[in-house]
User: Which sequence fits this backbone?
């Protein structure tokens, strides 16, 4: 589905990501873990089309998208839930959700998709006409995920979805992520909660200082003592 081949990403003259090779298959749940400042958010922004690679390959369903304009990525089936949610606080929950469905295909099925995300997040049903900024942190994260799902993505990008949430809400959030993936949506999860991320992922990449230093099935990574200590905080 998606493949980065020895991609290099820069901010001006400074290199942020070095020789990144990463694949996500259709319907797969992949996580990226690593210490703060490793480049995880930069990586997810590249895949969302928000930051271009300086060199290397970037393929989506076999097509080169390395120079595709950012606004075209949603139409290609990619949606992002950014770190910090980035909702429009003064707009209602309904208005925030509608903003996720402006691509032509998603717009045609807006009503059906809205019903589906409300069924997935029933607590939002009674909040649809409330300002998004008035919701709790957990409810705002639900709105952010639901907004991305309104685009009917084939690949959902999640950047630190558990950040700042209470432990009980985090459990619900990971259950929801698992359910979304079970419906056939591929998921790339960047997450600070390493243990929970590895628990639901099929494959994982460990990122440090802009480089992928390990990859494989979660069980393979957690069985290596030096990986557990140095990179996974376990």
Assistant:
């Amino acid at each position: 589905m998606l493949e980065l081949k020895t991609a290099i990403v820069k901010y001006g003259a400074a290199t942020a990501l070095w020789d990144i090779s990463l694949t996500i298959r259709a319907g797969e749940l992949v996580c990226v873990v690593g210490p703060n400042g490793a480049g995880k958010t930069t990586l997810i922004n590249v895949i969302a089309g928000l930051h271009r690679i300086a060199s290397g390959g970037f393929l989506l369903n076999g097509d080169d998208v390395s120079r595709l304009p950012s606004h075209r990525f949603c139409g290609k089936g990619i949606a992002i839930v950014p770190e910090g949610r980035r909702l429009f606080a003064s707009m209602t929950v309904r208005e925030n959700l509608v903003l996720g469905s402006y691509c032509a295909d998603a717009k045609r099925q807006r009503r059906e998709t809205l019903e589906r995300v409300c069924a997935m997040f029933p607590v939002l049903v009674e909040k649809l006409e409330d300002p998004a900024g008035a919701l709790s942190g957990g409810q705002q994260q639900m709105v952010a995920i639901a907004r991305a799902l309104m685009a009917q993505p084939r690949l959902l990008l999640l950047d630190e979805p558990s950040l700042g949430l209470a432990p009980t809400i985090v459990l619900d959030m990971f259950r929801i992520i698992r359910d979304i993936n079970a419906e056939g949506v591929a998921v790339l999860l960047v997450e600070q909660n390493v243990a929970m991320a590895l628990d639901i992922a099929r494959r994982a990449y460990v990122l440090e200082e802009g480089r992928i230093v390990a990859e494989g099935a979660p069980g393979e990574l957690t069985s290596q003592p030096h990986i557990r200590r140095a990179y996974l905080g376990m």
